[in-house]
Records
---
Amino acid sequence: MLKRYDFNASENPYNKFKTKELGERLSRAQRLVGNLGIPVLIIVDGWESSGKGFVIKDLVKELNPKHFKVSVFENPTEDEYSRPFLWRFWNKLPKKGDIAIFDRSFYFKVFNDLSLTREDLDRDIEDISSIEKQLLDDDTIIIKFFLHQKEKTQQKRIDELKEDEDRSFMISERDEDQYDHYPDYLNHFDAVLKKSDFTFSKWHVVSSEDKKDASDKVLGMTIDLIHEGIDRIMGMKNGGLRKELRDYSPHEKPLDRVNLNLKLEDEEYNELKNDLQMEAQRLSFRLYTSGIPTVMVFEGVDAAGKGGAIERLTREMDPRGYEVVTTAAPSEDEKAHHYLWRFYKNFPKKGNMKIFDRSWYGRVMVERVEQLAEMEEWDRAYDEINEMEQHLHNFNTLILKFFVYIDKEEQLRRFKSRETEPDKVYKLTDEDWRNREKWDEYIEAMNEMLVRTDTDYAPWIIVEGQQKKYARIKVLQSFIEQARHILDQTT
């Protein structure tokens, strides 16, 4: 893309407009996406000293500042470095109707690290592909610009900045390194651009030999691409092509194979529990000192005993090293973002543990059954969830997914027990009874979820929950087994 770029043939059809006129047209497009509730992500990347700041300044000059935000991404902070690669970018994504402008972006690492192996580069590009595809499927307009310049132009701009007392601080080691190794970076940038020029989010290479010309071209293209995105999204909403549901056999019913007769005697339970809890404590310390993040998910039917299992698992652990995240209905702010946004915000940094009492799997269970998500939305969520968990796995995260299961009769018994116990009655809600009326629909959704999101890197552990003691011991044993396994692989 860059190596074949002809600077002399770089025409600008937007030269006939004044910059202010283009800015005002972009402002109208901003109001339009705001009214339609469509988020827009604009990525401005390119060579150092290529005029990214100049271009972004013109991009936002006429915009309503309440509905756009510019985020600058450089070397990650210590906190960001201790999180999964995409964590800091998810936190800055636009909500519905807003515009986010990224000065550099998820591509910062892959563009600037010439030492990346092909395997690491391909893995990072795959992660980036997944986030862009997920945003696109969630009706986000994604626009990607790469500002290109000649080697002599870069040298001239670096020299000019060095001579300017007020702006010399803007020159970094990265500017100098890119100029000193211009041919190497040119080859590298070209390879990255080709790998990440996805059919669903293309790169737009813009010559920045003349920064004013580049600014007008980016403004004009942004306006056109926003309108193209609106047409695409509204066309789909009004009956355009939709992705067909993926193949899934309704005969695959893992819950039908669960043996709910498994039990432990009280004496055996008490003997096992104390030793297992102390071993879980020891391993949680080892995970912390080894810098291994842990993500645990607890799902299951209502009243299956998720909370009790979590309490027994963490009983002896240091509370400073773990946090239980209870997932409730999303807030208005959370509903204004991609549904995975609120979960990315809660992912642990290296060495820490997050335990999700219900999780992102609500998308394919309660949101599916209660028709809070369109069929196309919950159907594509299986792939989105698998990709997100693959990203966590790439970060050497210990992922444990527990599904605690009881039958319909046991659930009714526990509901009635809660009604008569003062210290448990708060656990029983009208929503629990409503969900029970849709038992068969939930079981169907749960079976499909267990089949389509059971992966080598994040398998489901089905916990037989008919007897609470048995379920609690199985959770402890499973944690210990998987923690030992990842520690053996890492240390």
Note: The chain is about 50% helix and 10% strand.
---
Amino acid sequence: MPLTPKENNIPLSKFESMLKTNSIYFFDSVEFEEIIHYYLDSGKNALAKKAIGLGLKQHPNSVMLKLLQAELFIFDDEMDIATKLLKELQAIEPTNEEIYIQQANICSKNDDHIGAIRLLKKALTLCEDEPDVFALIGMEYLYLEDFEAARINFENCLEVDIEDYSSLYNVIYCFDMESKHMESIKYLNKHIDKDPYSEVAWHQLGRQYFIIENYTEALRAFDYAVLIDEFFVGGYLEKAKTLEELKRYEEAIENYKKTIKLDDPTSFVFLRIGTCYELLGKNGLAVQFYKKAVNEDPLLEKGWLSIANLYINDKKYNKALFFIKKAIDIDEYNTLYWRKFAEVNLKLDFFEEAVVAFEKCIKYQDVALEIWLGLCDVLCFLGEYKNAIKVLRKSQVYFSNFAEIEYRLSVLKFILKKSKEAEKHLLNGLRIDFEYHFIIKELFPDIFKIEKVTHLINIFNRTS
């Protein structure tokens, strides 16, 4: 049996007293085993080693103490010593399943998972506590990504102990990895028939229904989960997410708030509550919870962006700019923030600041086409035509033969009175995507009226 805490355990207290006084007391081998297990479970390996050393002095032929010694050798990556010791023990007790389990542990640490499975199957023929060995075999199959074989072994664990929730989670994980959600639902329903008051099984059933987007059945399963255990935080959280999908936002908020009462609040929960309030049109409450989300986790980009987007939708651009600046102060390398910074500055006609934002995006490796085009268009508006051309030339390293670039180069060349180059780029744009030539009229109506431009477009339209 495992030892109780040392203040209530005579052998353990006696052992530690012996260490402090350098006295020598006698313990039987079982007491040493219990003391060593206590230290191992407590993570006090140095004391466990001392106990093993003293134990073997008093009981030099104890196979169990030597097995514990082998376990510590394995933990310290002293595989050769552990292997030699286990072979000696195997010669003494060839039917001791723990020897094969520790040998399998060495194989597993050496990435020989097939060898580990072979040894564990040998242990299975010798042991009485089969579920523990089935679980170990299941884990080895997981390392091999043989999810079906892993699942069968975890299912064997549940046949012996239906409340082995760790194995239940592993069974469902194996189904998930093979995207066998309907099979998972079938298995969970059978499990629930045997154990109808398992909140874990109901919770997992709800998750499977959620994945296949059957939100009505998912909600029913989560309802049962929290009915069985009214303190089940995970159940309320999944129920809230499901209610969101069903557009029952008030009820979703209620369930999210229950998780806050039962456990420490998280930025995710605050963010979801804020989103629900925004969808209900209650923007004041939405902002309150978005702010709580970023206070809980200042690096939560979705929180900052949600606040900014809400103010942008309300056309409160100065407030949006304030929160985007705060986000940038926290993480200046986040190009999502710089994109939003550019967007808001354009709304406020702060074009120089928008240029800085687009340039920051490029500097931090956000080289999407819309970034290059946005920077080009702002520079054009500011009359910096040569810089705009430089930007488009740089963009062609990433995007060659794009109509969006060719039409803009054409316009800029016309502005700079370089007609031949302008015509060349215009024809390139027309060949790539004729319909997109509307961008000239939209962004540069004066250029669109140039006779040469109209003439080329008409000719190309007739011949295409």
Note: The radius of gyration is 34 Å.
